[in-house]
Amino acid sequence: MSALLTIRNLTAGYGGASALDGVSLTVAAGETVALLGANGAGKSTLLKALLGLVPARGDLRFDGADLGPLATEARVRRGIGYVPEGRRVFPGMSVRDNLEVAGLSAARDRARDVERVFALFPDLALKSGESAWRLSGGQQQMLSLGRALMGRPRLLLLDEPSLGLSPKLADEVFSAVGRIAAAGTAVLLAEQSAARALAVAPRAVLLRLGRVVGDGPVASLSEEVLRGAFFGG
Amino acid sequence: MAAFQLLVNGVALGAAYALVALGFVLVLNATSAVNFAQGDLVMAGGLLAVALAPLIPLPGIVLLPVVLVLMAGLGLLLALAAYLPLRRRPPVSVFISTIAVGIILQNGAAILFGPEPRAAPPLFGDDTLHIGGLAIPEQSLAIVAVAGLLIGVQQWVFARTQLGRRLRATAQDPEMARACGVPVTAMILVTFAIGAACAGAAGLLLANRYFVTPTSGGDLILKAYIAVTVGGWGSVPGAVVGALLIALFEVGVSSVLSYPMALGALYLTLLAILVLRPQGLFGEAVRRRG
Question: Domain ABC transporter spans what residues (chain A) (predicted)?
Fold first, then answer.
């Protein structure tokens, strides 16, 4: 498979503190990759750096194009969708408006994309006119996922989608992620729950203290390496 | 009868204040910055109408689109000069830079127009309509109609168009808006343009009945600030309702006492609201849910 996303020697951080230190990895078109590691390993920073939401240095290429000089919105328009940690829906806007605002195509195509999202998440269709802040946590997570799909991304960045959800809701969200991946969208999934992530991702990248400490098919990663990413040693 | 006439006058004044407050709150929401030049933009709109009147010797309603466009341009300049270069600095930087822009506008207006009060042409005519014993100035009705139309158009754009959704998303969470592909900087520029256009329209509407001087903006920014505080900091409907309430209060109290007494009473009422209901009338209507 050809690489859709190539990251070489990425360094990023906040203020003077470095959160990523020389990270390199690739994601192929249509591939689902789990990004695993403990709190503070740099998973969220890596996703934000890919979107240009934190200052970063290094070589970032998406479908062959250099992402470095591009603003966040331009990166999104190239085909990168983002589901942030904590959902961050637009609380004062309706469910439909939350979706529409992220649509990058003309009005008619946008309406079709909204219907596609409603087909994927029927709960949202029932709440179409309600303000997003009225939704439950699980519904907000689905809205956040649906919103990211409105840009018709080729690569979806998911940051801790199960965080704060009940096991049942987390299952529903991961089931949707599985369907999105099966439809051919590449997914880079940052997740603390390794079991859930590895259930949908055939490959995992392990981060520890801002460095890649393991990268390969899930079957090839030993339990020792996995434990090391989460607990050190 | 007298009460109804006062009501018409109060609503007309309130409609113009509502435009000022609306422009103020839109910029506040989009940038978290207080635009202290908003009152001086109202003054600039009024004097712009005064300057255009001899060039376009037609009713004020014909001048309105010209004033809207030119003031939107001034709003863009304000954003480019006083907001964008300072957006990553502490909020006090924008606070001071907009005060500086206001002072520049005041002094520029004083040089160009002098300190005398000026009047813009009426929107349609300056007759008084006599309806069943009531004497209602045409200009008051025109102010209500035009301000109502402009506020309605603004609400429609924000509620029903993709531009409006993007402006609202930018106001609610600019970083997330970027992550949804929204060109946030462009939206902020558009917001400043709309805010200044609202101020310019208010200037044209007010400058006929209430005259305009280079220093008249100071009073108006206070009114906008109070309207937004009374309505609920950041609430768009609250700003409009707050502006109407202020004007009705001002007209009502000054008809019984005097204008200075009405202003004093207004500030006392504001203090009472801040103590009893600090979130304002429409505050905290929007909450996050985990």
Answer: 5-231
* Separation in Å, CA of A230 to nearest CA in chain B: 26
Q: pLDDT tens for residues A70-126?
A: 999 999 999 999 999 999 999 999 999 999 999 999 989 999 999 999 999 999 999
Per residue in A3-52, pLDDT (tens digit) is 999 999 999 988 777 889 999 999 999 999 999 998 889 999 999 999 99
Selected for mutation to probe chain B from A51, A90, A133, A165 (highest B CB count within 10 Å) is A90
d(CA B277, CA B230): 9
- Between chains, do B286 and A91 touch, taking CB under 8 Å as contact? yes
Tell me, what's the pLDDT at A46? 96
CB A80 within 8 A of CB A188: no
Taking CB atoms and an 8 Å limit, are A88 and B181 in contact across chains? no
Question: Is position B112 within any domain?
Answer: yes
Could you tell me how far CA A128 lies from the centroid of its own chain? 24
Sequence ranges of the domains in chain A: 3-231
- CB within 8 Å: A101 and B180: yes
Q: Test B289 with A104 for CB contact under 8 angstroms.
A: no
Angle at A139 between CA A137 and CA A145, to 5 degrees: 105
Of residues A92, A89, A20, the one with CA closest to residue A56: A20
Architecture of the domain defined by A3-231: 3-Layer(aba) Sandwich (3.40)
Inter-chain CB proximity B286 and A92 less than 8 Å: yes
A94 at the B interface (CB within 8 A)? Answer: no
Tell me what pLDDT residue B32 has. Answer: 85
Residue type for position B277: R
